[in-house]
Amino acid sequence: MILEIAQIEIKSGMEADFEANIAKASEIFKVAKGCRSFAVRRSVEKPQRYRLLIEWETLADHTELFTGSQAWKDYRAMVSPFFEGPPSVEHTELTLQAF
């Protein structure tokens, strides 16, 4: 299982609009091959900063099948107008689940 972590900075005053659109956009991920979960977290200290936590079965499900697809383009069209700049994205593997 791969966890994609995307950090997104949202334009000031656009947080509510972003949250409404990312909720709609989450439906795209429900049917994406290999997507296991989709969560959005907002920073307490920096309320314009969000992190998307998306679990994929494999890295290829995200990078080869989803990114660049029409579904990805639809998702980006829904949320990118609110971005302050390009998201920072990384992929992680679980090495310890302590409790």
Lay out the secondary structure.
Blueprint lengths: L1 E8 L5 H16 L4 E8 L6 E8 L2 H8 L3 H10 L8 E6 L6
Antiparallel strand pairs: 1-3, 1-4, 2-3
Helix pairs in contact: 1-3
**What is the molecular shape?**
globular
Summarize model confidence as the mean pLDDT.
Answer: 97
Strand order of the largest sheet: 2-3-1-4
Indicate the multimeric state: single chain
Please write the string of helix (H) and strand (E) elements.
Answer: EHEEHHE
The overall strand count is: 4
Task: Give me the secondary-structure category.
Answer: alpha+beta
**What low-confidence regions span 5 or more consecutive residues with pLDDT below 50?**
none
* Backbone CA Rg: 14 Å
| Residue share in β-strands | 25-35%
**What is the helix fraction of residues, given as a range?**
25-40%
Distance N to C terminus: 18 Å
Q: For the report, how would you describe the main beta sheet?
A: 4 strands, antiparallel
Number of helices: 3
Would you mind describing this structure in some detail?
The structure is a single chain. The protein is α+β, with helices and mostly antiparallel strands and 99 residues long. A 4-stranded antiparallel beta sheet has the order 2-3-1-4. It is globular and about 35 Å long. Helix content is 34%, strand content 30%. The protein has helices spanning 15-30, 59-66, 70-79, and strands at 2-9, 35-42, 49-56, 88-93. The longest helix is centred in the N-terminal third of the chain and has 16 residues, at 15-30. Helix 1 (15-30) runs antiparallel to helix 3 (70-79).
